[in-house]
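Could you help me review a protein record that somebody else here produced? What it holds is a sequence and that sequence's fold in token form. I have pasted the whole thing underneath without changing anything:
=====
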Amino acid sequence: MAVLSRPRGVVETLPTRPAPRRVGRGRRLRRDWLLLVCAVPGLVWLLVFHYAPLLGNVIAFKDYQPYVGIADAPWVGFDNFSIIVNGDPAFLNALVNTLVISLLQLLFVFPIPIALALLLNSLVSERMKRTVQSILYLPHFLSWVIIVAIFQHMLGNTGLLNGFLTEHDLGSVSIIGNPELFKELVVAQVVWKDTGWGMILFLAAMSRIDPELYEAAAVDGASRLRQVWHVTLPGIKSVVALLLILRLGDVLSVGFEQILLQQNAVGPTASEVLDTYVFNNAVGAGSWGASAAAGLVKGVVGVALVLGANKVAHLFGERGVYQR
């Protein structure tokens, strides 16, 4: 049987795949109309509760009182910002407390979920991993009222800890209601409540890492610690950078409800933060304009921090919140 051969010098070309046609906007709308309808409630919620209230920032430049209304309130320019420019002692105290608590949360609350995700990712048993994840997720779904009550029953003057110490003649410790330990207590509560929930994104990022990278590292003689350092951490650094940038945007927000529930026990000197300062001065003292000015400055600083941190992320080759 004769075998046909390709003549010498003739190059066989593979058929090129035609470029996909671009789908028109109208066709995409008709195709994805159900998804768009499902997104409408979330979009309405975002507009009503996040964007519409931004219009209320105009009272930062007015002498606003609820019985007068926003439209009829007289303009005062930047007079409400005098508490910031002139250094109002109550405002400065709230600012210092906010920065200290935020720094402690950045040092402890942010990295602990990463460490916990690394530990869970090293578990061999998937059943054990799912069980531990479910247990760690649960505190996130409890309200701050319940969290504060739990800590009071555990660490209060008549709580379980002091009850145990008293029964064994070991004295007692003052944690709940102690102004000197309030900031550390706030950070501990946040760690207990949100660590399990915060590790979800890190676990998801670790699941995207190619298993062959771990196999290649093991063949090269890398230990488990070396695999974490050279494979796992580089694989999740973009997620870490993104969440760190977003966290810096909330650096002046450290938990309004959590602190307000415990403020009476320690006093405003130790517990007043910017969020409670705005609330107490607006609702309690009736200084609506000055409180709105403080809240506006806090928001502007948060946006500036996000933009600045995103720029730094670009300099280090990371995508950040948005690409250049």
